[in-house]
Amino acid sequence: MKHLSKGMIFTGVALAAVVATVAGAAGNFNNVEPHEFDPAHSFLVQAAWLGGIGCPTNAAYAVYPATNANATYTACATGDTKDKHNEGLLLAKTGPTPNNASATADLKGVKDTDLTELGYDIRKPTSGTDPRGSHCGAGAPRFNIELQNGDSYFLGCNSPTATATAEGANNEWLRLRWGSPLLAFNSSTFVLTDITGKKVKSISIVFDEGQDTFGGPDNFGLAGIDNIDVNGTLVRDGRTNAG
Fold it and tell me: What is the pTM assigned to this prediction?
């Protein structure tokens, strides 16, 4: 058996430590798992990955009257060409906002991530304040962020302001990104704070604004989102995947 020198052992240990550090910094974001919080069993909320509602990337379709695919449609240039069912994440709350219920989704594999960017694509035209399309309020859909130091933060669809890019030939979707710096509201003080580089314990998406005045200006109570982003890594459908 070949023996390792002390120098080789030290080098191996140091390399392992570097790899572990990089892995911790990057995290392992790989899935978005939907749930409903509905303790009174109101059945007025829903969270689910569904085919046919996502942001298409090179999706094949048939131009009428053809019955076989003879064209392709792309709204999100950066998406998942392997997502043949074009899945999107549905988040819905029917009825009044004061109902103690919400549609939620847990971001998996984000623990120990040094956070620099969050985002998603939302099925909404032109801007986050446009009354058409998905609900995009100050509080929903929002990211709830818990840090390793015990502090918690949140950022809503239109507050704080994201970098917004219209997608699709007719601006069918909106890509929202928060980062450089990543600003979020402290859940206790409501002070807008730079959390760039802070180490994550957990992240979830919460949708709890309904169809009443709290859910204005659209009063729609529903959002369709896709391509959920943590530090540039995207989860694009309900499979355990990222890229």
Answer: 0.88
